[in-house]
Amino acid sequence: MGKSVYDQKEQLNFLYGRMELLLTMLDTIEPEEAGVEEIDRIIEMLDEIENKCKKFRNQLIEE
Question: InterPro entries recorded for this chain (predicted)?
Answer without folding.
Answer: YfjT-like
